[in-house]
Amino acid sequence: MRGIRVAVIGGGQNCEHDVSVASAASVRQALDPSKYEAVALTIGRDGRWHGPELGALASGSLAAALDVLATCDVVFPLVHGPQGEDGTLAGLCELAGVPYVGSPLRAGALAMDKWATKLVAEAVGVRTAKGALVTSTADFTGPVVVKPVAAGSSFGVTLVRREEDLEPAVRQALELDDRVLVEEVLNGREIDIAVLDDPDEGRRTGPPLEIQVPGLFDTTVKYDGSARFVVPAPLAGTELKALEDSALKVYEALGCRGLARVDFFLTDDGFVLNEVNTMPGMTAESQVPKMFAAAGLSYPDLLDKLVRGAMR
To answer: For residue 187, how many C-alpha atoms fall within 13 Å in the half-sphere facing its CB?
Structure first.
């Protein structure tokens, strides 16, 4: 009997292309070969599709990629960011009639939009940072964080402490999106939690992870190895319960499915939501696999649960 064919899609047409390529390569390597046949598909920065099964003449063709998807039992879409994690690939899989790992189109689109996520979270009683949505310029009200509304891996994020630095920071963020968030700076511990729809145990959370960095957890720090991850994050019992409840509330309100990482700041006044990632980094060294590894769930077993959950 042949193994279950899993189309693993990486790459993409956004600033997270390299991160997505790394996630896809790691997942392909870790899928149990006795159960799964990993089928590599990569979306180039120019939007052209590539993969061994496309053939030299058809390489770049979406039509050829759809032909390959039609031969697969399930899709593992690992394109982080816009035109991937934002529901684009979920919509493609829905139209192609192939099951897929992760959130449906609506949840991906809502979670990728940081402004929409804030509105949904506040509606279910989960606090978010005070902020403003801007499309050109912003007023300086003190130290702020400037970020594109829809971008990941901290690309385009700037900590602004001086008024003269605000306009350049907004311009930089506008290079990645046509809308920008200007938010208050939160002082507190950065703590993330992962939510998993476990096909064996039901919906559950992994141990919380604390990110310890001397300054802003920006793109450079995120990938240069200088950040320290503490799992499980040291929390009081009441704090952990509040964190898990808030993460589950936001996950369910957005309509997420399969897996998501929900990021918070723990301030003196309690937890404040930062953002939600419906397809977070998925190398063995990424945050979510580290969280579940701390709970005794290995990386290959986590991937197995995600694939089986999607097929179910």
So the answer is: 2
Residue 221 in any domain: the answer is yes
Alpha carbon 298 to its chain centroid, in Å, reads 20
In terms of DSSP H, where are the helices of 207-258?
219-223, 237-254
Specify the pLDDT at position 55: 72
The burial class, CB within 10 Å (0-12 / 13-18 / 19+), for 20 is: buried
| 3-class SS string, 62-113 | HHHHHHHHCCCCEEEECCCCCCCCCCHHHHHHHHHCCCECCCCHHHHHHHHC
pLDDT (tens digit, 9 = 90+) per residue, 215-231?
555 545 555 567 889 99
The verdict on 171 and 68 lying in the same domain is no
List, for residues 159-183, the tens digit of each pLDDT value. 999 999 999 999 999 998 899 999 9
Predicted TM-score (pTM) of the model is 0.91
Q: What are the φ/ψ torsions at residue 102 (nearest 5 degrees)?
A: 105, -175
Number of structural domains the chain divides into: 3
Spatial contact of 226 and 205, defined as CB atoms under 8 Å apart:
no
Closest by Cα among 234, 233, 225 to 285: 225
Strand locations in 177-254 (E): 180-184, 189-198, 202-205, 209-212, 228-230
State whether 216 and 114 are in the same domain: yes
Residues 82 and 19: their CA atoms lie apart, in Å, by 13
Question: For 211, how many CA atoms within 13 A lie in the half-sphere containing its CB?
Answer: 22
Residues 121 and 93 in one domain: no
- The CA distance from 11 to 4, in Å, is 23
Closest C-alpha among 292, 291, 288, 194 to residue 247: 194
Question: Whole domain around residue 306: which residue ranges?
Answer: 110-127+187-311
